[in-house]
Design goal:
- The protein starts with a strand and ends with a helix.
- The protein has an eight-stranded parallel beta barrel with strand order 1-2-3-4-5-6-7-8, surrounded by seven helices.
- Helix 1 runs parallel beside helix 3 (about 45-55) and helix 4 (about 70-80) packs parallel to helix 5.
- The protein contains ten helices and eight strands.
- The protein has a single domain (about 5-210), classed as Aldolase class I (TIM Barrel, Alpha-Beta Barrel), CATH 3.20.20.
- The protein has helices at about 15-25, 35-40, 45-55, 70-80, 90-100, 115-125, 135-140, 145-160, 190, 195-210; strands at about 5-10, 30-35, 60-65, 85, 105-110, 130, 160-165, 185.
- The protein is about 45% helix and about 20% strand.
- The chain is of the alpha/beta class.
- The structure holds ribulose-5-phosphate.
Length: about 210
Amino acid sequence: MSRPNLQVALDHSDLPSALADVKNVGDIVDILEVGTILLLQAGDEAVKCVRALYPNKKIVADTKCADAGGTVAENVQNAGADWTTVICCATIATMKAAAEKIEEVQVELYGDWTFEQAEKWLEAGISQVIYHQSRDALFAGETWGQKDLTKVQKLIDMGFRVSVTGGLTVETLELFKGMEVYTFITGRGITAAENPKQAATDFLEEIKRIWGE
Ligand code: 5RP
């Protein structure tokens, strides 16, 4: 079983603080995400800046695109992103249009979605999904539990590369032991830590302890 990737989500409300954090942790993590919040604030300039700092890293532009997939994917690809995200309620046409313009598209799983829809994403050639505990659900008292693990495992068994995200802590990772998670995406667990560099190192070390190097 290969080691899950560690992805940092830059969900800052301004570009300078996002760049300050990414400079601290960019060499530790595997994947850099220009988060939805940052994209809405700073636009594709944020992607361009992160690409300029890390020419060789995988960069995700978390657009959570719902429509105009081809245009949105092309725009962030031109800015330097390798991958982008679409929301699970987008049409297959939107997902396919996005997938034609960028290396890979990931489907963001929020709210209501079904495994029947997921089969259609696979048929459309999309093999990455992001399993979320939404920030607002977590604020409302939701926690990670067996119901999530069951769905994540089913998606893995279907053949998806599954990223997991939403309020992750170093302690949460153990819940997924034995599962072939593709990537753990962490925003505040790293960027809101007193020492983001140490926090990123702690996440990575725990992933290596559980899944091996
Ligand atoms: C929210 C996101 C976040 O980027 C992702 O969930 C990581 O955030 P955090 O670890 O801070 O919860 O996509 O929609």
